[in-house]
Specification:
The protein is an alpha+beta fold and 221 residues long. Helix content is 18%, strand content 43%.
Length: 221
């Protein structure tokens, strides 16, 4: 069985900009009065999302179920075809707070070898769910944080999606989303200090997840 870590619950406020260029969005972050600065090099994030055959994770998100989970295998790098040093991640939502459990997967996989990847995910027996791969996505992420480390912001752009519901193998990304997604992250105990941070984020706040957006764009519309 693969082992993971339980992270503390935190706030994850999401915003979306559909008009501004990603570089303009990043400049807005750098000009924030809280003095956000780069804390990690930019990198490409790749995900294979898993769901039950009746789309439990998707439906619970759309319906706003307060206690829910989302399942994905994540890896980093520009080469999408090889799933290198992946992690199984379980995103847990509890009312307004979220956390992430991470389970390292020792093997690397060819992206077309979904059978082996599904077997590895199923090895985490505590899930007790029949999970199948449903969606692939990639995007570029930039990382910013305050000097005290209390608040972090990620900026995701170049979002691309490919549905696995009808395709037997990945070929190339079929859908590109021109929106830029901004996410503000901070521990639950800092909630009373978050208002001044949010007041200077001139973007539209949204509850939509990338998984839901990708499913809507590629499969379920």
């Amino acid at each position: 069985m693969i082992k993971g870590d339980q992270r503390s619950f935190r706030h994850e406020k999401k915003y979306k900009s559909e008009q501004l260029h990603p570089e303009v969005v990043k400049q807005v972050i750098r000009n924030h009065p809280a003095s956000f600065r780069k804390i990690f090099p930019d990198r490409q994030i790749n995900n294979v999302y898993f769901d039950t055959p009746n789309y439990m994770a998707y439906t619970e998100n759309v319906d706003g179920i307060s206690e829910r989970r989302k399942f994905r295998v994540r890896w980093y790098g520009d080469d999408v075809s090889i799933i290198s040093k992946p992690n199984l991640e379980i995103k847990i939502k509890s009312n307004m707070l979220g956390c992430k459990e991470t389970y390292p997967i020792k093997s690397s996989f060819d992206l077309e070898d979904f059978r082996a990847l599904k077997k590895e995910v199923s090895a985490y027996s505590q899930l007790k769910l029949d999970l199948v791969p449903t969606l692939i996505n990639s995007y570029q992420r930039s990382y910013y944080g305050t000097s005290d480390g209390n608040f972090r912001i990620t900026v995701d752009s170049g979002l691309r999606y490919f549905s696995l519901l009808r395709a037997i193998r990945f070929t190339k990304y079929a859908i590109e989303d021109e929106a830029t997604v901004v996410e503000l992250k901070y521990e639950a105990a800092l909630d009373d200090k978050a208002d001044p941070i949010m007041q200077y984020l001139p973007f539209r706040q949204t509850k939509s997840s990338k998984y839901v957006s990708g499913m809507n764009l590629t499969s379920l519309t």
